[in-house]
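In the lab's daily routine, each protein ends up as an entry in a very long ledger. A line of letters takes care of the sequence, but it says nothing directly about the fold. The three-dimensional part falls to structure tokens, numbers that each stand for a local backbone shape. The outcome of that step, for a single protein, is printed below.
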Amino acid sequence: MSEEKIRISKDDLKSNHVEEILEQQAALSGDVDYLHRKDPPKTKLLLSSWFYLLIAGFVGALLAWMIIEPHFDDVFRVTGVIGEVKAGETIPGLNVKAYLITINGVNVYATDENTIVKGTDQEKHEIKTISDLKPGQYAYAAIQDGVGDNSGLAVGIQVSPTPFAAFSDKSLKDQSNEKNLWSLFIFPLLGALIGLFIGCADGLLSRTWMKAVKAGLIGMLIGAVGGVISMLIAGFFYGIVGFFTEGAGMDPFKNTGAFLIQVVRRTVAWALLGMTMGLGQGVALKSKKLLLNGFIGGVIGALLGGLLFDPIDVLILSKGVMDPFRSADVSRMVGFTLTGAFVGLMIGIVEQISKDAWLIMTQGPITGKQFIIYKEITILGSSPNCEIYLFKDPEIDPEHAMIVKIHDGYVIKDNNSSTGLYVNNKKVRESKLRNGDKVQLGKTVFSFSEKERSK
């Protein structure tokens, strides 16, 4: 009698059928420790909170940048033909002597100490200093501050043998008003959109649309209010520190101390903004733990974003050279999106570090999704109002089961469901949960985990 060979295909190895049979046999024999000896399931990358919150923060910040950037610039840009050049003119309101260069009807004040001059004129003469500027040359001035309706202080003047394209058809006064107006919206809009996307991310992923809308709107409102408050505090802090740096002639591009102070200024300002960016979900779900996670993660994330903003701008994008003609749009985009991404990332990391108990879906529509248990009572069911909303499973009741936190762990209870509750393949009315327990409602299956408790 020949022995029959057992053949195992690759499909057999990938199938969960063998594992299911072993679990059933373990349950029938009373060997529930079989499940607890297995390695706990892992959360999928795309369903990990740190990952999707990172993406949410990034997208919110990018959207804020896309809205703000067309209306905001660090300098006012004027192009045209030089009408006249005068030396020894007094800058209005400053009592400082400077050159007065008229470009396209705009009065541009410049000094050798604070204005970079470069270029080549129509006669191929190299232009290096203000004294090289002559009427009739094509010029482009980058103006840092306005000193009147049609006057400003230039940080850079560039000359070209051909005319420069116009950057704006608006007057210097209109450019100044637009910049001042949009500068008021930067922090509130950034805080609002990062708060919106981070607040609604988990609800969207879990398909609890009302939860997503509620948490998102609350996150947006709190983020906007926080943006206004942090803008005021940060503006005050910026002003004081700036008085001792810029007022002393300290240029972040030339002075290491000034550069470090600028980094500290921005880091503090952005950390203040981050305090409110992650609070939406905690407020919407009335969870103190989510509030704390959002607060800590938001502060750390925004702090990291602010910390990297100037090193990236000055050392990488500008390569350590002050260029008043270079737009800071890329720097702002990098700074905004890094801040949004770091806020989401750190909220997710803090959430993972501080969690006590959680379920990972091992069978169902979002297999690999982790559900952290925050509340004393957590309802599982097919109703969107449940803390853990289970969709696409007709065998699950609106409020199928609940997980209750007790003094030494967690208990799961059946809510008189029509199809029952199963723990480790056994139908139960109530069961104390252990690490590795398999929990089944309808066709949806979870693995339960909790932190080791100190003995």
In short: Residues 53 and 195 are 11 Å apart (CA to CA). The longest helix spans residues 209-245. The first strand starts at residue 76 and ends at 91.
